[in-house]
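Work Package 3 (structural annotation) set out to generate three-dimensional models for the target panel prioritized at the project kickoff. During this period the team completed the workflow that converts sequence records into discrete structure tokens, so that structures can be stored uniformly alongside our sequence database. As a representative example, we reproduce one entry of 233 residues exactly as it appears in the project archive.
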Amino acid sequence: MQMLNEIRMDLEKLKDPQRAKDSEWFFKTGPGQYGEGDIFLGITVPKQREVAKKYSDLSLSDIQKLLLSKIHEHRFVALAILVNKFKKADNFQREEIFDFYIKNAKNINNWDLVDSSAPYIVGEYLAGRGKAILYKLAGSGNLWERRIAIVSSSGFIKRGEYEDTFAISEILLSDSCDLIHKAVGWMLREVGKRNSGELEKFLKKHQKNMPRTMLRYAIERFDVNKKRFYMAK
């Protein structure tokens, strides 16, 4: 508990009211927006990572307390500590961290929290393992669990494995949320960086049903003529 209080105090000392105000606008914290109710201290990501590194020995029970906080930076630091722990952990500890992450998925509730943690815990842990949990998350009614499902697949993409990225993308084609459209398009673009042929096979099959934002993200690295070809469909 002492270490937890020290983290809170360190973050409080770093707060910047103007940056906090800007962050509340940027992360859409207004009524009805995806980040509704999120509270910011206004701390830069590098400074948050410094705090996380300082408290790398924080227990999972205290990490959970931070994840339950309404303050965004508390949750970001908690996840940064968790990622650091995972990198250094043995197989048994990695399983424990993975299980902890999945159980707390609903508290990983903004896009930066997902993107800075899911690939490095979920994606890494599931490499070479069954991916059923990702398909369950992809069908969730919770926006952040769906984003975890697709963004985690970046860990497989780096290994030249695209099947799950494509399959999860198909599940999310009809998703109504722009944040999911962007995430799917981003992962498809990552596939394209490594294998443009596989990406184009997917696009030719699904481009007519893809939300425009998703399609634009997916083809971002194509040349002008190829972009026009796909956007014209």
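The longest helix spans residues 72-88.
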